[in-house]
Design brief:
It is built from 16 helices and 13 strands. The chain is of the alpha/beta class.
Length: 355
């Protein structure tokens, strides 16, 4: 079968024509999911667009759908695979489109950390919570240990839930979402310990540090959102008096505190939609979403706080999408082993109960 690279010789008009034809042939048997950070030409062919969890849920709810093509990074396609119906298959246009944040916490390192921390806390109850932006193996890890998954919008609720059942919370892999959520529910900074997988296992004082903490955070971050700095917020306001600034909670804590509002990509979309006509809004998130919001709301002045592109999302393009559609049901099928899928689904279901 042809490779994705063999489609590079087609011009955009031919690519679009053939994608439309494939969509028409497959009809309701096909659902194309486009994450908010995808380039516009991919979004043009998406049946649904949104965040990873919402997209996975919507695709799974389509009874006539047999084929789910997830245009996003790999952990998102895994989530669709976990939640899909039995008759559905999930495909991903480029397996190389991973998430660096998700890759900062692998199962082996998390299991090692869990054992060290459990030993240090002398029987104190501890609950693991993983961010949606993690591999299926970590969702399963939380599922089998009484923990849950959270999204950027419900992380504070997941934190409250965890502290309602245990003395300590171990959260991974995003340090900054963890700090912003902790501040939101009133956890003092002095009760937070940052677990650094490159150094903490060998720290001779690790037992004391872990015992003193109620929240243990994994040292991980999103390259897209740590691009934004306090200076960007201040410069935007200085040049545009009256402007509002909204950022994602994966941004550093000091940036979130400096902004007017912070929330998930869905929150940011609502913030832009609900802003008054003529108002100026600077947005601290991925540039493809910011540019799209600016086009969709021409009656407002919407700008990026700073230009920040997700290169992994950008890997997915029209040639790879057409290649996937031409190999529907066959190429780049996403697979999660049944045991991992079941345990990960349990952690996701706990999240939905919390929400």
């Amino acid at each position: 079968m042809a490779t994705a690279e063999s489609y590079r010789g087609m011009d955009e008009e031919e690519l679009r024509k053939r994608i439309r034809e494939r969509k028409a042939e497959l009809g309701g048997r096909l659902i194309i999911l486009g994450h908010h950070y995808q380039r516009q030409e991919v979004i043009d062919f998406s049946d649904f667009r949104g965040d990873s969890l919402g997209l996975s849920q919507r695709a799974a709810a389509q009874r006539d759908c047999e084929f789910i093509v997830f245009c996003g990074v790999h952990f998102m396609a895994e989530s669709a695979e976990i939640l899909r119906q039995e008759h559905q298959t999930v495909q991903h246009p480029d397996f190389r489109a991973g998430c660096p944040l998700a890759g900062m916490a692998d199962l082996g390192a998390v299991e090692q950390a869990w054992e060290i921390v459990q030993d240090a806390v002398d029987g104190a109850r501890m609950t693991p919570v993983t961010y949606m932006n993690s591999e299926a193996s970590l969702k399963a890890f939380c599922g089998r240990r009484g923990g849950a998954v959270c999204t950027s919008s419900n992380a504070p609720a997941a934190f409250r839930w965890a502290f309602g059942k245990s003395e300590k919370l171990f959260f991974f892999p995003d340090e900054h979402l963890g700090r912003n959520s902790a501040r939101q529910i009133g956890i003092p900074a002095g009760e937070i310990f940052l677990w650094d997988p490159s150094g903490s296992p060998g720290d001779p004082d690790i037992r004391r540090k872990v015992r003193a903490a109620s929240l243990i955070l994994w040292k991980g971050f999103c390259h897209v959102h740590t691009r934004f700095q306090v200076e960007h917020v201040r410069q935007a306001r200085a040049a545009n008096p009256g402007a509002k600034v909204v950022v994602h909670p994966e941004c550093r804590e000091e940036v979130v505190q400096e902004a007017d509002a912070a929330g998930s990509t869905e929150f940011i979309c609502r913030y832009a939609a609900e802003a008054a006509p003529g108002s100026t809004v600077f947005i601290g998130t991925e540039i493809n979403l910011v540019s799209r919001l600016a086009r969709e709301h021409p009656d407002k002045n919407i700008f990026e706080l700073a230009r920040s592109l997700c290169p992994n999302m950008f890997r997915i393009d029209l040639p790879k999408l057409l290649w996937t559609l031409d190999g529907i049901g066959r190429v780049n099928r996403v697979s999660v082993d049944p045991e991992t899928k079941g345990q990960a689904r349990l952690a996701l279901e706990r999240m939905l109960e919390i929400a």
